[in-house]
Amino acid sequence: MDLEKSHERPDWRNEKLGSRIRVALWLLEVIGEGNTFTKEQLHDAFPGITTIDRRLRELREDGWVIDSDRTLSHLGASEMLLTRAGEPIWEPGRVQLRRFKRFSAPQLRQKVLERDSYSCVHCGLSSVEGPTEAPVNVVLELAHVVPLAAGGSDDLDNLITLCANCHRLLSSGVQLPDVDSVWHLVQGLSPQDQARLLAWIAMDRKPPTQAEKAWSLYRRLRPEQRTSVAHRLGQAVLDRTDADSSD
């Protein structure tokens, strides 16, 4: 996309445009690819629009790569980085309008999340593992198996659940491993781990273990509640150790 041809794009200050389109134009005109911005700058640019944070997040569904402290550790809590601009959603006739409608349908989203057990089908991250303050639709996102641009459809079987990080990596064109390197790693697994991997392949997802579920829920407790669980666990381990020693 040629960022120099700004005169060919609408003015982001035009209030007749939708707020999602205005945010995209603002990012290109004011921020620019490769530059950081803050939530305060976003809110100052769009005063009175209470849903502006949501409109910004929705741009990721159109191929916009917008990083935060959840995906890049060096960013501050309120900082974001426009890593890469996505589809020019301000252009008339774009299929992104249909995509926005699809992702706004609660029933379809719910079916995809339920089918995938509210977990990323690539890394297994579940909705309860995200930041405490993050809603599920920020931690988990919907993505196409076959992109719309490549002839993919909006059917349920062409939609999968990804965490924000896996979705970003796939959208950014990160080089994927080759078959031989993956098979070399698989060959080195123990028979038990090979059987476990085969089960995951058959299910097409990696279900979290009970320990991982416990850890995820533990992380969502308040500090004083975490202390209580830690003390109980410590006592349970000591009691079991003492019992084993006495046998």
From TrEMBL:
InterPro entries: HNH, HNH_nuc. It comes from the Bacteria. Residues 107-168 form the HNH nuclease domain. The keyword Nuclease applies. GO terms for molecular function: endonuclease activity; nucleic acid binding; zinc ion binding. Signal peptide: none annotated. Keywords: Endonuclease, Hydrolase, Nuclease. This is HNH endonuclease. It comes from Microbispora hainanensis.
